[in-house]
Amino acid sequence: MSEVIEKGKLAKKASYQIGICTTEEKNNALLKIADGLRANEKAILAANHLDIQAGREKGLSESLLDRVELTKERIHDIADAILQIIDLADPIGEVLETIEKDNGLKIVNTRVPIGVVGMIYEARPNVTVDAATLAIKTGNAIILRGSSSAIHSNLAIVKVIHEAMAESAVIPDSVQLIEDTSRETAGELFRLNDYLDVLIPRGGKNLIDTVVRESRVPVIETGAGNCHVFIDDTANFEMAKEITLNAKLQRPSVCNAIESLLIQSDWFDKYGNDLISSLIENGITVHGDERVFEEIPFVQPATEADWETEYLGLEISVKTVQDVYEAIDHINTYGTKHSEAIITEDENHAEVFKQKVDATTVYHNASTRFTDGFEFGFGAEIGISTQKLHARGPMGLKALTSNKFIVSGDGQIRE
Amino acid sequence: MSEVIEKGKLAKKASYQIGICTTEEKNNALLKIADGLRANEKAILAANHLDIQAGREKGLSESLLDRVELTKERIHDIADAILQIIDLADPIGEVLETIEKDNGLKIVNTRVPIGVVGMIYEARPNVTVDAATLAIKTGNAIILRGSSSAIHSNLAIVKVIHEAMAESAVIPDSVQLIEDTSRETAGELFRLNDYLDVLIPRGGKNLIDTVVRESRVPVIETGAGNCHVFIDDTANFEMAKEITLNAKLQRPSVCNAIESLLIQSDWFDKYGNDLISSLIENGITVHGDERVFEEIPFVQPATEADWETEYLGLEISVKTVQDVYEAIDHINTYGTKHSEAIITEDENHAEVFKQKVDATTVYHNASTRFTDGFEFGFGAEIGISTQKLHARGPMGLKALTSNKFIVSGDGQIRE
C-alpha cells in the first residue's frame, strides 16, 4: 500500500475519534503541542538547518530560503499563535437551525467537523503547525503534504506534535505528514476521494492551478490576487495617495497587495502626475495606458497582459477611466475577485462599486491590505478563499466545518 | 465561438445584472414565467410529444419515458411550484455578520448570489423550470445542459421563460439552455471556469461520477444514497417494521430509500423471521449474511458487493450485528453518507449513533424518506448534497448563495 493511501486510511479512522473529542480535550492537546514546540526548539532548528543547507546547495533563491527558515523567535511566535487558537470558541456542536414539523419530527441542523482535510503547500514550515492546530481545534483529521524544501523541518515539527498528542486524549493519527514529497504523492492526494473530504492548496499560482485542474477531491481555491484601487473624481488626494502606497508597498509579495491602479480622468488631470511620481520615487515600475505613458515621465507602456498580471513585486499597471462604471467593468473583467477598493467622497459611487464589484472583499476608502483572517478578527486563518463555494474571503475555524441534520421521531413514516 | 463559450459569456454578463435586481423584480419575473407556462401549455405538450415519440423510436425504457413525459397536470404542478418560490424569503442582501474594528473599519459580511450556476441533468424537463426559477429567485444566472431525450421539451420551456422574462426587469440572458446535447458540450462545461462558478449534476451515478472526475469547475455532488436502517436490541417491533417497509417501499427508486438493513442479533432472534418474511411478502429480494441466509427461507446469500450496492429497486441486503458500534462501523464503511436511521428505545444508543454516524441526515425512530427540501420546510430543492463542502443535505435557496465582505473606512491603511 502506498504511503498516501495508508495515511489516508489512518486519518479517516482517526477523524471519527477526534470528531467527538470535547473542546477541553482538544485545547489540552493544543497546549501540549505549544509546550512541545518550545521545549524542542533546538531539535527543530537543527532540522531546519538541514533544509537551509540543502536549499543553498540546490541554489534556491534567498526569498524562498527566507520562507523556509525558522528562528528561535519564529518558533515562539508559532507557539504563541496556538495559544490564540485555544482561546477561540469551538464551533463544533453549534446548533445552526431547529425545525419542528407538524408530524412531530424534530430536525436539528448541527455544525460538525469536515472529516479529513488535505493541505498541499509550499516552503513555509509554520503552515504545518497552523494547519494541524486549526484542524485539531475543529475536530478534523489532516493530511499534510509540504514541499521537499522544508521536509526536515516538517518531520521534526510533526514528531513534536505526535509526541504531544500522545499525552493527550486526541489520537496522534489525526495529523498525518506525507514524507514522500515527489510529484506522485500530490497526484495520489488528488484521487483520494475515499478518505479525503477537501483539499486546500496554499502556495503559488502554478500549485493552485494544478490542484484545481487535477483534483477529484473538492478543492477550496485560495490565493491569487490581481487587486485594484480605483480613484474616483471626488477622491481626497492625500487619502488616495496614502492608500495607494500602502496597498502597493506595505508588503508587495502578498495576495491582497494591489497590482493595478484605475484613475478617473478628471482626477488624473489634477493629481495624476503627483501620485504617479510618488510611486516612481518609491522604486515602483509603472506600466501606464496610452494617456499615462504620454503624460508622465518614466512610465512604461502597458500591454493587454499588464491588466491581467499579478506582479507580486515593485510593479504596477495604471489606467485612466471615464467613471466608476468603466472601473467596475475593468475590475470584473481582469480582476481575480480578491480585494478591490474605491477611493471616493461620493456615497452613491461607493454604493454602486460595493454592489457591482465581484470580489471576496470590497473596500471604500481603505487599503486592500486588510483582507486577512487576523485583521478581520477571526483569530486564525487557514487561507483566503477566492472561490464562491463553501467559504469566500479569509477562512477561520468555521471554514473547516460542515453540518449534519439530526432528526428525532417516534415512528414517523412518509405517506 | 462554440455554443457553450458564447452562452457562458452571455450568462456571466447577465449575472451582473440579475445579481442586483430587487426581490420585487425577481418575483415579478417568476410570476410571468408561471403564467407563461400555463398559457403555452399546448405548445409545451406538443414539443414533449416529439421527445416521447423520439424516445419510443430509440427504444428508451418506459420508466425513462415516464420521467420525460409532461401532462397538463404536471405543467400546472410546475407552475404552482413557482408560486411557492415567490413566497419564500429572498436570501440575497442578508447581513451575515458585522465586525467593527478598533481602527474604525466597519466590515459587513453580506449574502450575495453565486454568479453563474451550471446544471447538468437527465431526462426530467421539470428540472429545467425548477433550476431556472431557483436561480432567478437567488439572483444567479444559470446555464442548463439537459439531456437529448428531453431537448424538444426543454427548448419549448426555455422559449416560454425567455418570453416571460422579456416582459420583466430581469434580463432573459440570465437563463441559457445548451441546445447541443452531445458529450462534447458537457466536456466544455467542465472547463468553463472563466464563466461558471459552480456545476451541479443531477442524475444517475454515472453522470455524477463523470462530473466529479472531470470538472475543473467547483462541483456540488448530489445524489447517491446507500442508506441503512439499524434495528437495535430495544427496538419496538411494530415501529421497526413500519419504518423499514416505508423506507424501502414508499418509493424504492429514490436516493433516500434504504438499501440495507442491520439487525442487532438478540432482536433478530426474536423478530428477525417476522420482519424479513414481511419484506419478502412485499416482493423484495433479500440478500442476507450467513446467519440470515441460513435461518430465513427464500433469502439469497449476500456477497461483499451487496453491502455497497444501491439497488434503487425491490432488493435489500440484511446483516446481523453485535451492537450499535458494529452497526456504526458498517455504515461508515459502506454507506454513502446520505441518510441513516436507528430504531431504538435506548436513548444512549441513539445519541452514540447520531454523533458517530457520518451522514447528511441521521434519524432516530423515523423513516429515511424525509431527507428532502420540501419535507424539511425549505420550500424548494435544487438537489441533495452528499459532500461536506458548501452545502450538505437538502439544498434550498441558501445553497445558491455566496458571501461578500463590504468594508467601509475613512482612509485606514495597514501599519
From TrEMBL, chains A, B:
Domain of life the protein comes from:
Bacteria
Principal place where this protein is found?
A: cytoplasm
InterPro entries in alphabetical order: Ald_DH/histidinol_DH, Ald_DH_C, Ald_DH_N, Aldehyde_DH_dom, G-glutamylP_reductase_CS, Glu-5-SA_DH, GPR_dom
**UniProt keyword Amino-acid biosynthesis present:** yes
Keywords (A to Z) from UniProt: Amino-acid biosynthesis, Cytoplasm, NADP, Oxidoreductase, Proline biosynthesis
- The signal peptide here is none
* Reactions it catalyzes: L-glutamate 5-semialdehyde + phosphate + NADP(+) = L-glutamyl 5-phosphate + NADPH + H(+)
Location in or out of the cell? Cytoplasm
| Pathway connected to this protein | Amino-acid biosynthesis; L-proline biosynthesis; L-glutamate 5-semialdehyde from L-glutamate: step 2/2
Q: Identify the residues that the record assigns to the Aldehyde dehydrogenase domain, covering every copy.
A: 9-276
User: Does Cytoplasm show up as a keyword for this record?
Assistant: yes
What is the main EC category here? oxidoreductase
E.C. number(s) listed in UniProt: 1.2.1.41
Instruction: Read off the Gene3D superfamilies from this record.
Output: Aldehyde Dehydrogenase, Chain A, domain 1, Aldehyde Dehydrogenase, Chain A, domain 2
| Biological function | Catalyzes the NADPH-dependent reduction of L-glutamate 5-phosphate into L-glutamate 5-semialdehyde and phosphate. The product spontaneously undergoes cyclization to form 1-pyrroline-5-carboxylate.
Stated family: Belongs to the gamma-glutamyl phosphate reductase family.
Protein name, please?
A: Gamma-glutamyl phosphate reductase
**Organism this protein belongs to:** Oceanobacillus neutriphilus
* Phylogenetic classification of the source organism: Bacteria, Bacillati, Bacillota, Bacilli, Bacillales
